[in-house]
Amino acid sequence: MRFDTVLVANRGEIAVRVIRTAKAQGYRTVAVYSDADADAPHVSAADTAVRLGPARAAASYLDPEKIIAAAKSSGAQAIHPGYGFLSERAEFAQACADAGIVFIGPTPAAICSMGDKAASKRLMAEAGVPMLPGYQGEEQSDERLLAEAERIGMPLMIKASAGGGGKGMRLVTRLTEVPGAMAAARREALSAFGSDVLLLERALLGPRHVEIQVLGDEHGNVIALGERDCSVQRRHQKVVEESPSPVLAPELRQKMCDAGVTAAASIGYVGAGTVEFLLDADGEFYFLEMNTRLQVEHPVTELVTGLDLVDAQLRIAQGEQLQLTRDDVTLRGHAIEVRLYAEDPYNDYLPMTGEVVAFEPPVGDGIRVDSGIVTGSTVGSHYDPMLAKIIAYGDDREQARRRLISALERTRVFGLTTNRAFLIDILRQDRFAAGEATTAFLDEVCLTERRAPSTRHLAVAAGWLHRERERAAARRTPGLAGWTNGPEQCSVMILDGKEIHLRRDHAGLTVEIAEERHHVCLGERLTVDGTAVDVQALCIGPDRIMLAFGDLDLDLRDTLLDPPDAAAGAGSGVLLSPMHGTVTNVFVGLGDTVEAGTPLLVLEAMKMERPVVADVPGVIDEIAKAGLQVAADDVLARIRTEDSAEEGS
């Protein structure tokens, strides 16, 4: 079936990216949106847009009937699913076919073949694709799984068969850990995917994660477009991706590409897909899974091959035959991508929400930015926390790495915490620069300790905040700002818990912090101790300032006039929500006695789970209910301790 109008059943950066290519190829484009995304960039990027419903994904982007109805009402004859949401739902692909709408992706049968990890591993083993020892059987009793775990041996990976994104996954190194890990994986898998079926697999400690990009057409042709190395991961979720892999020799690359083509061809694959492998230090590789969709990290493949994968998807969906052969695919240069998240990597990767007060993406030679936000966007708790992908291309890996570091240093996101500085730290690590990062890299290098600002950083913050206050005063009382009847103007701030004394004179500010003293000049570009400072800052109100130094982001508030702490703190027995989210599991009830460290509930936001544990021993007096949506700082639980009971008697 031929089509000229494409509905993009997604949001964020991938929707913007698909719409860009579709429009460039002359297609009319249709966006869909939830109430939370009414003003989102992908809505304005499309030729027209259709509202789906409330912010909850289940009532909007995950509702197949609403998506198909939107296609029909807008005249779209084809649907591009992007990634995530409905992109790997075989029933959605079938519903599109039943409605006479082209699904820009593989057949429902191919999606089914790879959608269940256990079934896909059985299929790949039959096709001769290299496999790790494991168990993918249908019998799921605890007894059978324990027996299989003992047979496979340690270390062992327990995985949700229907899962992805690291959910329902546990690594165990001792047989005694297996029962508890199975229970936790089942519980998480059932909540996330509606299935608690597990598979077991011998774990490789510190392998590389290497994946092969494939394209297949309706005429039986399948080709590989080289590999991507996605070894830098946190919680089994990719953070940095690159192409080509820094460790693949041509012979190994060809073997892995051949295995990827075999995997795709064995299920009659049509469209763009990715076959993922684990690569051991000895050069042996093993099938991990196949993603039957466009990958988040596809831009690095586009940059080194010169191809547009979305254009290829559209052509294949139109029934065209692949024009490329294996000999036509050449990898030129090197590309590295990082995922810019709204999260705090120094606080257990806590997802962050809020308004994007200012967004300035980087530009420059070899830099590409795929973004789903603009200044004024609101980042809520309903969807994935990824804000943008920043990609750098170079003639070689080192040039690409340097360009990406420079691009991140120029990236500005004000209004909420991001992982920008964390990404820069990764790229600057000697092991990463040498191409030696494995999936164990982030656990081994320990980059998640928050970097304390120096007195120089704080002097910049104090000087900038002081200047903004002077300007505000000048607007209120022209001619009187900075006036004093003393020999010099003095003021005090408390930033980052440190008392800062400022003395104003004709040459600028003298800033004293503990034993340190700095001189700050307050021109359009601040200088500290005679040296210009590369920083951008934004004052939000009279007391809060956000600063983006080259490799450090600060969000500071002057707490000088704050009242003494009266709110519940650590060890108080009053547990507050650290973020906007939904309570998914509750493990205790009113009246239960708990010890410090006892798991109380699980809070989920932006596809990430955060356990909440008791901070003191005592009795549960209040506990949130499963399904409750909470805002940051809402009370989740109250624990009555012996001390509090005595105080009340």
UniProtKB/TrEMBL annotation:
Residues 565-640 form the Lipoyl-binding domain. Gene3D superfamilies: 2.40.50.100, ATP-grasp fold, B domain. InterPro entries: ATP-grasp (IPR011761), BC-like_N (IPR005481), Biotin_BS (IPR001882), Biotin_carboxylase_complex (IPR050856), Biotin_carboxylation_dom (IPR011764), Biotin_COase_C (IPR005482), Biotin_lipoyl (IPR000089), CPAse_ATP-bd (IPR005479). It is an enzyme of class 6 (ligase). It comes from the Bacteria. Residues 121-318 form the ATP-grasp domain. Keywords: ATP-binding, Biotin, Ligase, Nucleotide-binding. The keyword Coiled coil does not apply. Its cofactor is biotin. SMART domains: Biotin_carb_C. Its EC number is 6.3.4.14. It catalyses: N(6)-biotinyl-L-lysyl-[protein] + hydrogencarbonate + ATP = N(6)-carboxybiotinyl-L-lysyl-[protein] + ADP + phosphate + H(+). SUPFAM superfamilies: Glutathione synthetase ATP-binding domain-like, PreATP-grasp domain, Rudiment single hybrid motif, Single hybrid motif. Residues 2-447 form the Biotin carboxylation domain. This is biotin carboxylase. The lineage of its organism: Bacteria, Bacillati, Actinomycetota, Actinomycetes, Mycobacteriales.
